[in-house]
Write a structure and sequence with these properties.
Blueprint lengths: L1 H9 L18 E2 L1 E4 L3 H14 L4 E4 L15 E2 L6 H15 L1 H4 L7 E2 L2 E5 L2 H16 L4 E4 L1 H7 L15 E5 L3 E2 L2 H14 L3 E3 L4 E7 L2 E7 L2 E5 L2 E3 L5 H7 L7 E10 L9 E4 L4 E5 L5 E4 L14 H14 L8 E11 L6 E4 L5 E5 L9 H14 L13 H4 L14
Parallel strand pairs: 1-13, 2-3, 2-14, 3-10, 6-16, 14-21
Antiparallel strand pairs: 4-9, 5-9, 6-8, 7-8, 11-12, 12-13, 15-18, 15-19, 16-17, 17-18, 20-21
Helix pairs in contact: 2-7, 2-10, 3-10
Length: 413
């Protein structure tokens, strides 16, 4: 082993296999252009190449691979949503997560830890009871648990009855998990590039050309690129990019902040959230406590972190885990969430014939990464909308068929 490392270090050539396609010139035309190199964009490219044989694909990213919301989320995976359409969709995604490391031979560091959502009022208990029944009906493991069960699941949780917001019950979701967000996007990107897909970082789409109701090309900071189809997967910038194609989306973008402490010894296994006090907490495999909450109150295309939100998250976390008063914060960050009126995504066709939408993910895009790759690639390849994403069409807002997932987040917005 030491001799191998020495040989590696002194070699004049880089002996390891290159993960991604090397930087190069853009071709004049691609069958498919994917805007956004996050988990969704790379996942779609991966499935187009591996399962549909479409390899003349370019992924265009204005910054770097996985540098948007994929790098700025808290990596929570779950399927305990409110509506049948939402539960069915995320249930299939959780199933795909279980085999994702084997799928592209890249360890995504999946940890099945479970999620506990706390109820602090009679209304929340009633809501959780109904939610648990919907979940079980759809084959998702969720159940209402009492105070004694909560204390056994999370011994360090403050259970005092004289607390400002006493814990009355909880929704236990055994399928809750976390994964390494950067490993997910690297695995998808590597698999796509190995099959001929081109990854172009530092390539910003500045305009979309429409000819006779179809996308004919995109203009970038590196030149014009012709295309047979475009898939938009740009998270917080969804409205901005869609406007280039003349598409108006019912989306507002808000900063969403989170923070993490220095590492401590392992003592918290489940993911614990409280929509009532707008906070969630889990401990990573490295020992850090991840703390997040609801979106900022005002729309803004920005990823700045604020002292106000840090104080708010700290106060809320201490309501649940007083021992964190001694914890030292390591860093704080923000992403930009694209929120729809019904808190569900917009997937599928658009008013432009060959322009496909993967938008409106708000705070739940990471957990949907695998199923988005599968379903959106199928749509592009077959020109048929898969049943699992049909309810999330943009037209639902014109048909008044919203899928209301408000309140299904780990910390209400």
């Amino acid at each position: 082993m030491p001799f191998g490392l020495l040989k590696y270090g002194l070699s004049s050539e880089y002996p390891a296999q290159q993960h991604f396609s090397p930087p190069g010139d853009l071709k004049k035309h691609y069958d498919v252009v994917i805007i956004g190199a996050g988990g969704h964009g790379t996942g779609i490219a991966y499935h187009l190449a591996k399962y549909h044989g479409i390899t003349n694909v370019a992924i265009l990213e204005k910054s770097y691979l996985g540098g948007g919301n994929t790098a700025r989320n808290t990596a929570v995976i779950r399927s305990n949503y409110l509506t049948e359409e939402g539960v069915r969709f995320y249930r299939e995604s959780v199933k795909l997560w279980q085999n994702l490391s084997n799928e592209f031979d890249y360890n995504v560091m999946l940890e099945n830890r479970g999620q506990l959502t706390l109820a602090h009022s009679d209304a929340a208990v009633r809501s959780f009871r109904w939610r648990a029944e919907v979940n079980k009906h759809m084959g998702v493991r969720s159940e209402l648990v009492d105070r004694q069960q909560i204390a056994e699941l999370v011994p360090n949780l403050r259970m005092a009855e004289d607390a400002r917001f006493p814990i009355m019950a909880g929704l236990w979701h055994a399928d809750g998990a976390t994964a390494r967000h950067d490993a997910v996007v690297w695995g998808y990107a590597r698999g796509a590039c190995q099959r001929g897909v081109e990854l172009h970082q530092l390539t910003e789409v500045q305009d979309v050309e429409i000819t006779a109701g179809r996308v004919s090309a995109v203009r970038t900071n590196r030149g014009r690129v012709g295309c047979g189809a475009v898939v938009q997967a740009v998270a917080g910038a969804s409205s901005v990019v869609a406007n280039m194609a003349g598409i108006k989306l019912p989306i507002h973008s808000y900063p969403l902040q989170a923070m993490v402490t220095q590492p401590y010894k392992p003592l918290l296994t489940p993911h614990v959230s409280s929509p009532h006090v707008h906070v969630y907490v889990h401990q990573t495999s490295r020992g850090e406590f991840v703390i997040g909450g609801g979106s900022d109150p005002s729309p803004l295309y920005n990823t700045r972190a604020t002292l106000e939100q840090r104080e708010s998250l700290s106060a809320a976390a201490l309501e649940l885990f007083p021992f964190l008063a001694q914890a030292r914060l390591l860093r704080q960050w923000a992403g930009t969430t694209d929120m729809t009126p019904d808190y569900s995504p917009i997937m599928g066709l658009s008013p432009v014939e060959n322009y496909y939408l993967d938008a409106g993910w708000g705070t739940w895009g990471f957990k949907a990464t695998p199923i988005c790759g599968v379903s959106m690639a199928e749509l592009v390849a077959t020109q048929k909308v898969p049943d699992i994403i049909a309810p999330f069409a943009l037209e639902r807002f014109y048909r008044f068929e919203q899928i209301n997932e408000a309140g299904a987040t780990a910390a209400s917005h």
